């Protein structure tokens, strides 16, 4: 009997992933866009085929974390290539370097910048951008993201079929498990 329970437990993560995917499909209807493949089979499989479009995803980085910026830019570059539409980037500062974006696969000519000072204004710009089917994706840099604001962004992403990325600034590893999130992935 114990062996049968152990076999069931081994299949549990796969069943949970399948249930989550089915719930997403039911919530959005059958016309959910194909996910953005990352080109890494193990990660794409763990994400159910890639990063879900019409969804919000969190990226965590330090206050001046170039690796997080580079990762986000590379994701947006893949997205622009796959969907052929521009992206909206709502930066917290003035440190984006166009040649650097190009080196990471993101054509700077396909990036719309919305420079606003207050995080609340960035949230508004992100929400409006996520609702627009003219954009492939939206990235916003924020110091924190509460559950209510995250859910609003998630719903906006679903309505526009747009990929939403939140780059959380000033955060380090640890403590994420303690903070609730509306994001599809972190």
Describe this structure in words.
The protein is α/β, with parallel strands linked by helices and 186 residues long. It folds into two domains: 32 residues; 144 residues, Rossmann fold (3-Layer(aba) Sandwich). It is 45% helix and 13% strand. The chain contains six helices and five strands. Strands 1-5-4-2-3 form a five-stranded parallel beta sheet, with helices on both faces. Strand 2, helix 4 and strand 3 form a beta-alpha-beta unit. Helix 5 runs parallel beside helix 6. The N and C termini lie far apart (37 Å).
Give the H and E element order.
HHEHEHEHEHE
As residue ranges, the low-confidence spans are 1-10
Q: Name the CATH architecture of the largest domain.
A: 3-Layer(aba) Sandwich
Main sheet strand line-up: 1-5-4-2-3
Mean pLDDT: 81
Estimate nothing, just give the exact number of structural domains: 2
Structural class: alpha/beta
User: In terms of quaternary structure, what is this?
Assistant: single chain
Strand fraction band?
5-15%
Largest sheet: 5 strands, parallel
The N- and C-terminal alpha carbons lie at a distance of 37 Å
Say which CATH homologous superfamily of the largest domain is assigned.
P-loop containing nucleotide triphosphate hydrolases
Instruction: Give me the number of helical elements.
Output: 6
CATH class of the largest domain: Alpha Beta
Rg, Å, rounded: 17 Å
Total beta strand runs: 5
């Amino acid at each position: 009997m114990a062996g049968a329970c152990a076999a069931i437990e081994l299949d549990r993560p796969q069943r949970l992933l399948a249930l989550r995917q089915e719930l997403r499909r039911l919530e959005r209807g059958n016309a959910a866009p194909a996910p953005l493949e990352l080109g890494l089979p193990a990660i794409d499989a763990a994400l159910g085929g890639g990063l879900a479009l019409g969804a919000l995803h969190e990226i965590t980085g330090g206050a001046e974390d170039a690796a997080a910026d580079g990762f986000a830019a590379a994701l947006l570059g893949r997205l622009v290539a796959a969907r052929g539409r521009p992206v909206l980037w709502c930066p917290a500062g003035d440190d984006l370097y166009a040649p650097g974006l190009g080196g990471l696969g993101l054509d700077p000519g396909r990036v719309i910048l919305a420079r606003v000072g207050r995080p609340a204004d960035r949230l508004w710009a992100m929400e409006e951008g996520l609702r627009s089917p003219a954009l492939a994706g939206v990235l916003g840099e924020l110091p924190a993201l509460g559950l209510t604001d995250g859910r609003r962004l998630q719903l906006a992403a679903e309505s526009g079929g747009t990929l939403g990325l939140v780059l959380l600034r000033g955060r380090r590893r640890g403590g994420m498990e303690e903070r609730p999130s509306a994001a599809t992935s972190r």
